[in-house]
Specification:
Elements (H helix, E strand, L loop, with lengths): L5 H14 L9 H13 L13 H27 L3 H35 L2 H29 L4
Length: 154
């Protein structure tokens, strides 16, 4: 047999594949596709994505959202102007004191963890990271083995 160039081989394979008859679709395919299209057509527009909403409804929705944002923003101005800092401190003082103490406790805990982590040798941290990476690799390996054993032959 003669040695073919890649272009000649490509042409030969292309000709052979073109000569094959087209595959026929399953008989039930048309009915399944038409049924899926009918199910899709009966879904109301408000259950579809934003792109399927009518243009007028999209414009109305954006206008209502912008209006609601403006009302909420401008309604808060008189409330902010009429607040007295002493009244706010009296009302929210206990809650703010609790939040302040929680923040202080969190800072203390973060400083303690920082102090403890600085005492651990770096090679221990690298070893722990390598150990965790090994555990993850083993997990994926066992998962792949279990899949091949139980489900790949079905």
């Amino acid at each position: 047999m003669e040695r073919l160039t890649p272009e000649q081989l490509e042409q030969l394979v292309h000709t052979a594949l073109r000569s094959l008859p087209d595959r026929r679709a399953p008989a039930s395919l048309e009915t399944r596709v038409l049924a899926a299209l009918e199910r899709q057509a009966v879904i109301p527009w408000w259950h579809r994505s934003w792109n399927h909403w009518p243009q007028s409804v999209r414009v109305l929705f954006v206008a209502v959202c912008v209006g609601a944002a403006a009302v909420l923003m401008f309604a808060g101005l008189p409330v902010q102007a009429g607040l007295d800092s002493a009244q706010v401190q009296h009302t929210f003082g206990p809650a703010l004191a609790l939040v302040d103490s929680l923040v202080a406790a969190g800072r203390w805990l973060a400083d303690l963890v920082d102090l403890l982590v600085r005492q651990i040798p770096a090679w221990w941290l690298y070893g722990a990271a390598a150990f965790v990476a090994g555990l993850y690799a083993m997990l994926f390996g066992l998962g792949a083995a279990a899949y091949r054993t139980f489900w790949s032959h079905r």
